[in-house]
């Protein structure tokens, strides 16, 4: 592997300033790791099982999500019945909706890791906790069906980003394809998740996955849970509040939140050169999607003060809202999740950082900064025929050619 560069590769769109110079000098590093999704941890990599949760840690994660959700719905209901003007109520509603989206999607992703075997060692216990506390109450897919759709198919190195991949089928159903016109690409990014037929398809998918496709015993559990839920809602006359502050963000806004991250999750409809290793192909189809921008650094004068104001404004108006609304848990480091699916999300940013410069059968890690950059990469791939945004296929070809030359030289010497 001598002479092969395994350092992280940034796309041609992003800034090339060293992230350690940008964020490494700022105080409260855990906060910046959360905002950007990018860790600067430089310790040794851990085994996947060393990142798993104890059961009490998993329960704390679940309790935190439900505490935020219930508190948000309660606050929204109180404001709804208050004497405040609509102008005062709407900002509170928006905060409530975003927090409910964040925590219900957080439960979905905790379920996702638990299903991968990346939370608890006891999978029977994990399945029980996941089903009753992370799946049924948010109308999520059953444990068995989710494992088939996600772990067995989407994570298969032969099925990822093919027509067999349910996630790429989702992109196809929303009108994306390789060779599409640019105007169609941009307009679909905006309106496709809002089309009535797509909203209905998403709702019907939830109905199927909750009340039709699970095992009969689980369908009974789900039906009983929701019968009791709606009975209590009617009894205490809170149906309107639940519809406005729980089901609206859970079913509609969650879909939009997921859409933002899903469109940039992979290089959909790939054009993989013949002979490329299937592992390198996986590495080429996804990347670290980090948030942030270069810090202005030290300076004086009004110009520097304006740069600082702009930097902080973009942080609070773009980076943090996107992080809360769409890119929770592991999603900035989703590329590493496909390399090491059993590493828990509590440690994934650090483990990605620890593995960045190490040789890997997946090739070098890659990254973008900001959701816009990822959309540009997907646009150039689908619309402009630029299928190797990080030059990973080129790197793989050079690597294979160098290995063949070395093998030929050894045969000649022998």
Structure at a glance:
The chain is mostly helical and 414 residues long. Helices cover 62% and strands 2% of the residues. The protein has 17 helices and 3 strands.
What does this structure look like?
The chain has 17 helices and three strands. The protein is an all-alpha fold. The chain has a three-stranded parallel sheet with strand order 1-3-2.
Poorly predicted runs of 5 or more residues: 1-6
SSE succession: EHHHHHHHHHHHHEHHHEHH
Give the biggest sheet. 3 strands, parallel
- Rg, rounded, reads 23 Å
Please count the helical segments: 17
What's the count of strands? 3
Strand order of the largest sheet: 1-3-2
Mean pLDDT: 92
Give the end-to-end Cα distance, rounded to a whole number of Å: 21 Å
Helical coverage, percent range: 55-70%
Briefly note the structural class of the backbone: mainly alpha
How much β-strand is present in the residues?
under 5%
Choose one word for the global shape.
globular
């Amino acid at each position: 592997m001598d002479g092969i560069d395994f350092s992280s590769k940034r796309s041609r769109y992003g800034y090339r300033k060293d992230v350690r110079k940008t964020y490494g000098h700022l105080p409260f590093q855990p906060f910046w790791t959360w905002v950007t999704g990018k860790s600067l941890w430089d310790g040794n990599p851990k085994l996947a099982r060393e990142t798993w949760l104890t059961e009490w840690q998993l329960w704390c994660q679940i309790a935190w999500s439900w505490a935020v959700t219930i508190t948000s719905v309660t606050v929204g209901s109180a404001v709804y019945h208050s004497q405040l003007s609509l102008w005062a109520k709407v900002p509170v509603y928006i905060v409530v909706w975003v927090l409910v989206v964040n925590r219900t999607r957080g439960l979905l992703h905790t379920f996702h890791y638990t299903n991968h075997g990346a939370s608890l060692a006891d999978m029977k216990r994990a399945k029980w906790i996941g089903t009753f506390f992370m799946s049924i109450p948010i109308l999520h897919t059953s444990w068995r069906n989710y494992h088939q759709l996600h772990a067995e198919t989407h994570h298969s190195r032969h099925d990822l980003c093919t027509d067999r991949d349910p996630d790429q089928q989702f992109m196809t159903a929303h009108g994306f394809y390789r060779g599409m016109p640019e105007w169609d690409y941009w307009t679909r990014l905006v309106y496709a998740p809002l089309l009535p037929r797509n909203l209905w398809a998403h709702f019907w998918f939830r109905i199927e996955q909750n009340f039709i496709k699970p095992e009969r015993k689980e369908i009974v559990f789900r039906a009983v849970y929701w019968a009791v839920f709606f009975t209590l809602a009617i009894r205490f006359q809170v149906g309107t509040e639940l519809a406005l502050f729980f089901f609206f963000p859970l079913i509609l806004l969650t879909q939009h939140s997921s859409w933002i991250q899903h469109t940039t999750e992979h290089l959909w409809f790939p054009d993989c050169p013949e002979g490329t290793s299937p592992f390198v192909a996986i590495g080429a189809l996804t990347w670290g999607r980090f948030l942030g921008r270069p810090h202005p650094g030290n300076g004086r004068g009004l110009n520097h003060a304006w740069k600082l104001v702009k930097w902080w404004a973009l942080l609070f108006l773009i980076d943090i809202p996107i992080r809360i609304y769409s890119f929770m848990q592991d999603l900035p480091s989703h590329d590493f999740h496909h390399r090491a699916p059993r590493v828990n999300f509590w440690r994934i940013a650090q483990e990605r950082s620890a593995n960045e410069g190490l040789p890997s059968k997946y090739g070098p890690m890659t990254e973008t900064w900001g959701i816009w950059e990822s959309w540009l990469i997907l646009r150039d791939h689908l619309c402009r025929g630029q299928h190797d945004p990080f030059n990973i296929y080129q790197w793989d070809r050079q690597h294979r050619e160098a290995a063949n030359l070395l093998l030929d030289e050894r045969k000649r010497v022998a």
